[in-house]
């Protein structure tokens, strides 16, 4: 996060919607917010018809009064532009602003996020409301920043209104210039899909068997991302054209959106909404499930957008809508733990969602800090304590850097192409989670890095280890970059399905793994999808046996110095290579012909000798270790995700920042407890 | 049932559709119907295009001839108005009369119940056909009564045609008078749903994530119920304006319909269609599943509409449509058992569905008494015997009263709001069935009582015990009523989620359980939904241990005389109260912070000392006991739902009405057998 | 297959799409195709916009050049008419040519088979493109035949465009002549569905509960079949009007299509697309699953259309679309095995699909013989060997006859009516597979025979045994035919639900099993569907005990000479007959009152003394035996479907055609190996 915040320590805050409550409650609410030690109040992101109750008529009284009261208690206010929920008068009069399903069913007033990004009418109305609001608040010193819209691409990340079809047609025209170019990129010669006029082109429409041209689908997602970013950009431009004293961001992290580009090109910093209790369903029955710790993965991803960030919605109670997303109550200690989780991963500002549980609407079960009854409860007590702690230690961590020398590579082309491709797409998610789990449970801090065609070696070179699980799409440019990375001393590992596609999603006419064949020194002799039809083959990797899942590639070493580190133990390719390792200059390239799981990732981490801080700590798997550095000093955050106490060892003397005691040797963390240590 | 029937004993009958059969078969059919001992014949409910083959042209010949033959055999005829299935000519010419899905797909000719209640055109056509039919048959002494339409709200109980949207707009205008009132009731300030013009208002329309404004949805169901009742009322008014010699009813029991109000305001009595073989799927793998005995619950609900009732369709064989609802064949004895089940619960008239299995259409597997082949079969034999028995004992039971001093409370606001609310809705159904099961297996007769804002204490005071499982919506009025009920000596028990919502479905800003806090003497300290994410906590209730399900509320006694009867055994609220009991004047109020199951309901019944007739009988769980009283004399119906013989004890001498023998001591009921005893 | 092929031996070939590849690759591809020993090349079936890039403008250059190169390597070319994929310009300008879902969602450009058969516009465009292509290639001696369209009714076999509704209206008018006739046939008197004007008639449209008039649905499928055949006929007529030197066929085997009639009336021979790897999902967890051997059943069905046939797409690698149908890689030996499987069952021409895996579009995972990289692989090697073998033995098998003296009867009315009828439809499929499995594992060659109202006794009389599992629809004509079949010495067996419906799908007013009651000598006393509600009853059949499934009919012998061969062991019909056998003249008629499974079929086969070739072979269950005869000489094909070696015995000396050695006694077939033996 850049210096837009003008803070010197981590600040907390809360989301508060004055329009939901009797005005006579406001002042006591702001007073208690202040009393909690909170500085920031976020508001107004769904309040369009408060600001513009009638088309073209603008009113600011309600929020002016609320902001005035916030000012009285020295609070800072963040205002959301209200474009996520158009007024009833707008959509009723101009239904063409609404989003539509692929099958043609229009989404109507009654929930949220039912508009489309490409309607000219919607853009016109959005511009005007944003302009009016920014003009009104540009000189209000209590208002420190703007959140654009709310949770872009949440709930629905596909769009098929007429405006979207029209805009897509223009988008492909810009991209390909000629129909020949488009026909080539989409491989339309297959199944006679050749386009002979631009007007024949649409976003994917219903087809028999729900199968669509896969190359068109990939472009469709690029287009959706571009549409969303352009909508945010449009608002940011208005704000910046009027004021340079208020920062600009947006919040959330949702599909079909290049958050890296949006953060870099449009935002002052990124804001995330963190709800670790979405882990409510036992989604992971494998060894050592991540549960709420999966949010450390999400937060690491957020960190990759642009460094430190804000949390605009930090879970403050059980969440849920009336008819979906039923979450249990966070246990005592979890709200505090999750606050530290956000901070450990790079949050420099944390706002809880929300001050008080709503008494009406679809989110009456999305609990705030306060209950409906507004009486004391254990969540208030816990967050009051948390706030006091953060005030004590905040400036030591504020603006510090998350330290890691390993990274998991991700990229949008594979993510979006893989969504529709059952022959590799889900392997990406599986392996990413398996690797993150292995890093976590071995206390090896890890970053996520989004690799692009423009990326410099410098960005990668700071990591000792890169994991790039299943990049089916892999260009010559990327292969060249990764080769240079290994040559300068880096270690990289690839999984099955690497390198067989180009950026259109078409396959190369090359031996697998395509352009990185020379780096890893192997080709794929043959391969098979594993789909439950036959028993999954076993593999011996580094003298341990595992069952493979998902996919098997039989590897064929092509150069001398390829070391076979693992072989298949059955199927017709019994005895053939499954895992190889090759030294290239001072670096190393691994290739694994299958999908990773926790166990295979763990033994590979060991073989790669990843940095695990065993010289400083003996930790249990339930503890997450985050290492932050600021002004040359390391801070260690130890987070206990277990309900049970954990017994750990400190091999060096450190300062416990929470109680300012020196500590070393045996230490016990009670359930959900947190340690913040500073090296001495 | 009031005296409309003009009978002095329980009569039987059958549904017979002359238009389905060659006319030469009719007389023999009526002769054999008479020979079965049946008196009533129900017909014509789908015969619109027989009566009006061409728009505006009416013909009565076919049914006149059939009714004439029925008269010849001294049968009484019930005619159905045919509005459940409009003619092809009508819907083809006026497609606006058809119902439409929320997504806009129109339901067309080809099945049944595809019309909407609010089309002015459909109402006009319906009025005319009813008027013509009643005018034609008003003086026909063979025709004794009218069934309006058929199974209102069966198959489909939501309606989204334009007529429905328009009518709903008018309905909310009538209800709320001002947009401000509507916006308040629907909490539209949340997510910017505020309406600024009546024309913006619709029934719920498609939204992203299929989430709708929950308060609007609750009103939508009230509107559907009102629409259905008004359609029935319209027909009843026509009939009553023409004749006072023929009674008026309708049949079935389906969703989104306030049957209590309809019965009271519109009908002479209620008629139910009883198909205990819908238990075909093993829906209940818990301890002691209800299976066909669940229909005792349905029949008890029907009894709550307006006392004794008629059965217009009593199962007479396996049921099923061509492509759904596949039912096995009733076992020998079950058809007789189910007839007694209906009578035990309040049926004063029972018509079997149907005389002969249809040879065409969607219901060729909905078997009648006779098979396609019209030859003798075991069902005919069994029902002939049953008919003889009913003729023997019918007048002893006819118009008698079902005796119970316990009741389960239900209400429409919670039923309808709970349909969409995953945070309590399904608990109502679960707990209702658990309690009914506990009452059943302990031989404690129980009523259902529909509680309303207008209810008098008198109605409740006749019960010693009330069970009100999870009334999330609970007003101050209801709390006051229930408090007076307890004060005058009643016992009441509530379950989790009681009392946190008002009649709009919005939450109170009050400590739970809201307005009944003072009655039960506890508040809810905290709570959590149980959704499988963590192991469900155990509870110790009255010294027995159970696993809780669904929801946990941690109770906090607020007054002195609250007795803690159960505590949680684990989770972070280990040791805290789960069940409390409080004496109020001469009454008692229990509160249980979780969802009921068979076991918890059973031990609570014991603690409440419910009337279980152990002074008269020692029964096995498979036996249902029903107690009827007439002219001060008690009649006991004992029904064996098991395939196996049951050995029971009579502690007093009684008269077996079926064989007129005196009996006492050990008695064996064979599989599916029935005893009808009269106290001596 | 008639003599259209003008071959004297089995030929192989491959599908090759020149438009998908750079022209500089073509010649090398054709050279290598020739080098594989292939003679036939199939092309062009999706190339409409290559031939007609602009409406009315035709171009043949690309394919002319490709065919010229094929000719250079003495290859024969099969051209597909391209009507399965209309050009974008066509559907964009005339969207009425597109198919539409029942709910009204139009299927658009972007996949394939999205047109409807009944659009006059589409027929006009189709006629023109076919005419132009045939005119162009009629004298090209390299072009030997035409494939019409591609995989008729694949992907989607229901059609609800306006053109289809209109055409259906005309179709029923032709069929019934009067509305009275239609109303009778569809049983519209039930639920007031009576039609009073032809314009009220549509194909089934959305109704509540997704239930439709079952008799209308049956006609709907007849109509779809007729529409498809008429579309193929239209193209065949054009081709035949222009040339008599090129044969006409189409390919695939899909639903709602009377392939028997189409083959007989329209085609020169039938072509099938055989993908045994569709067995990818373990769909059959019963004893001895069929897996890829199920394709022997499919091929036997194909053989019933018109004798020997062609394979136009023989699996050549793993198959799959991007988002569906994920298949594992065929194991070494399976491609060869499946080639022999096709030949064993009657293929006289086999084309592999496809030469090289596509690099673009939805089918990039439908692997060809060559991989994307075009380098050597094991599939090429295996098929090269296979090709050499076929060249060696091909003419011995070519045009030989598949020998069997047992047949399973099928028919379209029951298949189509049963699709929607849960009271018997799925029993047909279950029992058919159970019987086929029993025949297979006991090495008894079996045919499928499609029984029609016009069938002669002669066709049936050549079989000693007929199995007709659950013909609910069974006419007096058929009953008469089958009775004569038994009287002349045949053995027949029926299963439950036989004979209770007529050709409209309405039930007879007769005792079950209707018109065959006199043949089998039993009636059905009562029956029940088994749906899991109660434990399925056991049965004792020929002194072995089994659990029954699906349905139970209690049989009542009606004549003296009915032998009860099996009885129910529990339920209320314990001890009553379940299986009967009756001698009629020299023949025998069995009736089994339940659904068949592998075990019951196996013991019945034993009782019927089916021909099992035990005088020649002792085989393991994993071996399929096919017997071919030509010029009085028998050829035995033994196919090992197991991964493991099989040890078998030859009791006679035979010639191994693959190595020309004489063999007898103990022989071992390795995994997936094949033996082709000729009697000496």
Automatic annotation (TrEMBL), chains A, B, C:
Active-site residue numbers: 151, 313
Substrates-to-products reaction catalysed: Hydrolysis of terminal non-reducing beta-D-galactose residues in beta-D-galactosides
Highest taxon listed in the record's lineage: Bacteria
Entry GO CC: beta-galactosidase complex
Keywords of this entry: Glycosidase, Hydrolase, Metal-binding, Zinc
Binding positions for substrate per the UniProt entry: 112, 150, 321
GO biological process, one term: galactose metabolic process
Domain Beta-galactosidase C-terminal: 623-679
UniProt keyword annotation of Zinc present: yes
Limits of the Glycoside hydrolase family 42 N-terminal domain: 15-393
InterPro entries the record matches: Beta_galactosidase_C, Beta_galactosidase_Trimer, Class_I_gatase-like, GH, Glyco_hydro_42, Glyco_hydro_42_N, Glyco_hydro_b
UniProt-listed Enzyme Commission number(s): 3.2.1.23
Domain Beta-galactosidase trimerisation: 405-609
EC category name: hydrolase
A GO molecular function held by the record: beta-galactosidase activity
Record-linked Gene3D superfamilies: 3.40.50.880, Glycosidases, Golgi alpha-mannosidase II
Family classification: Belongs to the glycosyl hydrolase 42 family.
Protein name per UniProt: Beta-galactosidase
């Amino acid at each position: 996060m850049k210096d837009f915040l003008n803070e010197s320590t981590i600040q907390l805050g809360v989301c508060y919607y004055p329009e939901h409550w009797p005005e006579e409650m406001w002042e006591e609410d702001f007073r208690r917010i202040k009393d909690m030690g909170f500085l920031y109040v976020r508001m107004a992101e769904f309040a369009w018809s408060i600001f513009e109750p009638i088309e073209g008529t603008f009113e600011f009284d309600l929020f002016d009064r609320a902001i005035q009261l916030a000012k009285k208690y020295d609070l800072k206010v963040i205002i959301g532009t209200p474009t996520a929920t158009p007024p009833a008068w707008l959509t009723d009069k101009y239904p063409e602003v609404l989003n539509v399903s692929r099958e043609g069913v229009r989404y109507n007033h009654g929930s949220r996020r039912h508009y489309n990004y490409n309607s000219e009418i919607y853009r016109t109305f959005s511009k005007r409301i944003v302009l009016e609001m920014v003009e009104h608040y540009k000189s209000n010193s209590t208002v420190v920043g703007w959140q654009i819209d709310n949770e872009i691409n949440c709930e629905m990340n596909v769009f098929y209104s007429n405006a979207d079809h029209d805009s897509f047609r223009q988008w492909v025209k810009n991209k390909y210039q000629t129909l020949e170019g488009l026909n080539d990129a989409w491989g339309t010669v297959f199944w006679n899909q050749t386009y002979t006029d631009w007007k024949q082109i649409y976003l994917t429409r219903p087809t028999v068997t729900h199968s669509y041209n896969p190359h068109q689908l990939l472009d469709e997602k690029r287009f959706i991302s571009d549409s969303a970013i352009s909508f945010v950009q449009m608002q940011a431009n208005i704000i910046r054209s009027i004021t340079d004293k208020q920062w600009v961001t947006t919040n959330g992290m949702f599909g079909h959106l290049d958050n890296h580009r949006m953060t870099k090109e449009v935002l002052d910093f990124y804001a995330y909404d963190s709800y670790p209790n979405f882990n409510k369903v036992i989604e992971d029955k494998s060894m050592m499930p991540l549960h709420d710790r999966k949010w450390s993965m999400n937060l690491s991803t957020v960190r990759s957008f642009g460094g430190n960030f804000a949390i605009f919605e930090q879970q403050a109670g059980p969440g849920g809508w009336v008819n979906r997303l039923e979450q249990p109550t966070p246990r005592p200690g979890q709200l505090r733990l999750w606050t530290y989780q956000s901070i450990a991963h790079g949050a420099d500002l944390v706002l809880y969602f929300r001050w008080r549980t709503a008494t009406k609407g679809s989110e009456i079960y999305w609990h705030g800090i306060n209950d409906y009854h507004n009486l004391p409860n254990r969540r208030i007590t816990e967050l009051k304590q948390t706030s006091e702690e953060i005030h004590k230690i905040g400036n030591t961590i504020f603006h510090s850097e998350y330290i890691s020398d390993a990274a998991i590579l991700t990229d949008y082309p594979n993510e979006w192409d893989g969504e529709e491709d059952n022959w590799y797409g889900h392997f990406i998610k599986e392996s990413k989670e398996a690797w993150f789990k292995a890093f976590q449970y071995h206390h090896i801090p890890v970053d996520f890095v989004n690799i692009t065609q423009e990326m410099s070696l410098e960005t990668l070179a700071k990591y000792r280890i890169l994991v790039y699980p299943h990049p089916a799409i892999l260009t010559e440019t990327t292969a060249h970059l990764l080769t240079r990375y290994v040559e300068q001393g880096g270690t990289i590992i690839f999984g099955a399905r690497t390198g067989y596609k180009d950026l259109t999603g078409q396959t190369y006419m090359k031996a697998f793994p395509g352009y990185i064949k020379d780096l890893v020194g192997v080709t794929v002799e043959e391969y098979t999808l594993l789909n439950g039809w036959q028993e999954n083959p076993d593999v011996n990797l580094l003298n341990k046996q595992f069952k493979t899942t998902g996919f098997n590639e039989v590897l064929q070493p092509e150069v001398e110095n390829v070391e076979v580190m693992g072989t298949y133990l059955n199927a017709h390719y019994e005895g053939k290579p499954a895992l190889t390792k090759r030294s290239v200059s001072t670096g190393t390239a691994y290739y694994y012909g299958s999908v990773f799981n926790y166990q295979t990732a763990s033994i590979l981490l060991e073989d790669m000798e990843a940095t695990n801080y065993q010289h400083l700590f003996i930790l249990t798997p339930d503890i997450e270790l985050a290492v932050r550095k600021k002004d040359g000093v390391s801070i260690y955050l130890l987070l206990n995700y277990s309900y049970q106490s954990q017994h750990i060892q400190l091999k060096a003397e450190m300062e416990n920042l929470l109680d300012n005691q020196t500590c070393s040797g045996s230490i016990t963390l009670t359930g959900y407890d947190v340690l913040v240590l500073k090296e001495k």
